[in-house]
Design goal:
nine-stranded mixed beta sheet, about 30% helix, 21 strands, alpha/beta, 19 helices
Length: about 550
């Protein structure tokens, strides 16, 4: 006869072992190493938070300091591999297998460790993909999470950075896994119950805030004139003709430039109220001038941004906030909004091949994908129409029955033809294919597949891939905006000119844009201090961005 209570029994054993080091649900910081050694078992599937910005850094360090002779072969399933400790556990042999979404600051180290066989890679996921697998086949045995505060019953207050926490906790706790929370402080009463105590088994009072990465802060002082030019092209050549009001901006200086041009260049074009009114987006500081000048109507956020807390609380008409005024963010909900409620995604990448596949994986950096493949995809489940969606669908399939023709989400890749360290954006073959060959992966880690990409924007112009009718036209459209890279120099000048005559390729002059007008004086803010002043002093930038 089957024993249907094995998982509950296993949880009971972990709880009994952990309680030896706890007072109720509270584990003293001094007892954390012994506690973790007891509740984490070799071979466990562990979710360490580890997400886009918020890091359970105390728990990460304690896990990395376990003895690999006692705890080993862990399978880490975490969306963000951001802290050195996240990879130390693999260097030391505590963990063996990794499924993740984003690596950011650890991109170079994770590449070295993967090629050096220090990590057994499961897959590089999108956020929603990994979250979904938490509920199917990657359910954590143990979740190590972070919150601002807890009471003695384990009720958690997450503050503005809820991010992945509700998803991780539900997947773990509802399947008899163990949930341990790192909190800044234990209080008599939390300001708001974000995670109920019956889902949280133990809390550790860290005595200091958890680490938060200011991931979306871009200093306007670092925006180049080339990036301003690409932003002008995007606004006049894509945002305006499609009437894009609902969208997501990826991380980068190109999209930061777009945000800072809305109150100036966008205003000059008469686009206020016609574009960029609703966002699925972290609270980007570079959006402050657009918000203050009345461009933006509403923003739902994946997570918060360091220094934006008071500004968000003061702009509750724009942001989703709780009764206490703090931001209410949720990565899973916001990713879903990006899939189904947004008409456009625009972001950057490291490499684009001749078909239009793009990837942030190179032989020296594996940055992961984060949410870009979710935001930068054409969701086939969408059914509600909108002007940009219908227009893009008509360009892709002009001869189809209009009543049956699926619309298309606009997916735009924007960047300069030569990137960091003069590396070309356009390549014959993605480095992701080399990674797949070297690690014997069944699938190369492509960020956005070619059939999802609708436009490519560089300083040389815009390639509208929706209007390409053959594989050769698509290749020449990409070559046509690839500049002086090897890919660009190998273009067919005659065919590229034909594509330009059809409007598949648009140069700056075709849009009435003089590259000499791409001047930093166009930016609504030219420094972090300008952003702070535009916010009325509500934006409090991190110290590393202050130079005054």
């Amino acid at each position: 006869m089957n024993d249907w209570g094995m998982q509950k029994a296993a949880l009971g054993e972990r709880l009994a072992a952990g309680r030896r080091y706890a007072e109720g649900k509270v584990v003293p910081l001094s007892s954390l190493p012994a506690f973790l050694k007891t509740v984490v078992r070799s071979g466990d599937r562990v979710c360490l938070e580890g997400d886009n910005q918020k890091q359970a850094d105390i728990l990460a360090s304690a896990l990395a300091n376990l003895d690999p002779a006692e705890v080993h072969d862990l399978h880490m399933v975490q969306s963000g591999v951001v802290l050195p400790a996240h990879l130390d556990i693999f260097e030391k042999g505590i963990a063996r297998r990794l499924d993740f979404s984003y690596s950011g600051p650890q991109a170079a180290r994770i590449a070295k460790m993967l090629f050096g066989r220090k990590i057994e890679l499961g897959a590089v996921h999108t956020y929603l993909e990994l979250f979904a697998r938490y509920f199917i086949d990657l359910t954590p045995n143990v979740a190590l999470i972070a919150a601002v505060s807890a009471d003695k019953d384990g009720n958690l207050y997450t503050g503005p950075n809820t991010e992945d926490t509700p998803t991780v906790v539900e997947a773990t706790s509802y399947k008899n896994g163990l949930v341990v929370a790192q909190v800044t402080e234990i209080v008599d009463k939390v300001p708001r119950v974000d995670i109920p105590g019956d889902l949280v088994h133990f809390v550790v009072e860290a005595g200091r805030p958890f680490y938060v990465e200011p991931l979306f802060t871009r200093d306007p002082a670092a925006i180049t004139e080339t990036q301003i030019l690409t932003a002008m092209l995007a606004i006049k050549g894509i945002y305006a003709p499609y009437g894009v009001r609902r969208l997501n901006h990826g991380i980068g200086f190109n999209t930061a430039a777009i945000e800072l041009l809305l109150p100036t260049y966008g205003e000059k074009l008469g686009l206020k109220g016609k574009i960029c009114t609703h966002f699925a987006l972290n609270p980007h500081p570079t959006l402050i001038p657009a918000i203050e000048s009345g461009w933006v109507e509403q923003i739902h956020c994946f997570g918060s941004e360091v220094g934006m807390e008071d500004y968000v609380a003061g702009r509750s008409d724009i942001f989703f906030t709780g009764p206490d005024g703090s931001l209410r963010s949720n990565r899973a909900f916001c990713q879903t909004a990006g899939l189904y409620a947004c008409d456009m995604f625009i972001g950057s990448t490291l490499q684009i091949d001749l078909e239009g596949h793009s990837s942030t994986v190179t032989t020296s950096r594996i940055a992961g994908f984060g949410g870009a493949p979710n935001m930068g995809s054409d969701p086939r489940g969408r059914r509600h129409p909108s002007e940009p969606w219908l227009k893009a669908g008509a360009e892709a399939a002009p001869d189809a029955d209009a009543a049956l023709r699926r619309g298309r989400k606009l997916v735009v890749q924007i960047g300069e033809t030569f990137g960091e360290r003069n590396a070309p954006l356009f390549v014959e073959r993605l480095d992701a294919l080399e990674l797949a060959r070297e690690l014997k992966l069944d699938l190369a880690p492509v960020m956005v597949y070619s059939d999802d990409v609708t436009h490519i924007v560089t300083e040389e112009g815009i390639a509208n891939l929706l209007m390409c009718r053959t594989k050769d036209e698509r290749e020449q459209a990409i070559r046509g905006v690839a500049g002086y890279t090897g890919i660009g120099r190998a273009r067919d000048p005659k065919l590229v000119e034909q594509l330009r005559q059809r409007g598949v390729i648009q140069r700056p002059e075709d849009l009435g844009i003089d590259p000499l007008d791409a001047d930093r004086n166009l930016l609504a803010a030219r420094s972090i201090k300008d952003l702070m002043l535009a916010s009325g002093g509500l934006y409090r930038p991190p110290s590393r961005f202050r130079n005054w």
